[in-house]
Amino acid sequence: MVINELKTKELLFHRPCPRRCHMGSPIDVIERVTHCKLLVVIVQDTFSVDMHVNYILSICKKKLTSLKLVVRTM
């Protein structure tokens, strides 16, 4: 299997503690990330849902604002 190094990301899951273990990447070209979006769900390395909840709330806020503008013009 050929890996596209430009699209591949590495996400290490760990407990949310202050002391983090930094392991070297097996392939230096691959970027290490702290979160990624998989099937519309934001997955974080600490298994926290904060980023996903904030993302969903921001989408709801935009749609509600648009709905308010439509209702005002009626």
Question: Shape from CA axes?
Answer: elongated
Mean pLDDT over all positions = 85
Distance between the termini: 57 Å
Largest sheet: 2 strands, parallel
Tally of helical segments: 1
In what range is the share of β-strand residues? 15-25%
Physical arrangement of strands within the biggest beta sheet: 1-2
Describe this structure in words.
The chain is α+β, with helices and mostly antiparallel strands and 74 residues long. It has a domain at 30-74. Helix content is 32%, strand content 19%. The protein has 1 helix and 4 strands, in the order E-E-E-E-H. It has one helix at 50-73; strands spanning 9-11, 31-33, 35-38, 41-44. The strands form 2 sheets. A two-stranded parallel ribbon has the order 1-2. The protein has a two-stranded antiparallel sheet with strand order 3-4. A hairpin with a 2-residue loop joins strand 3 (35-38) and strand 4 (41-44). The radius of gyration is 18 Å and the shape is elongated. The protein starts with 8 loop residues before the first strand and ends with a helix. The mean pLDDT is 85.
Q: What's the SSE blueprint?
A:
Layout lengths: L8 E3 L19 E3 L1 E4 L2 E4 L5 H24 L1
Features:
two-stranded parallel sheet
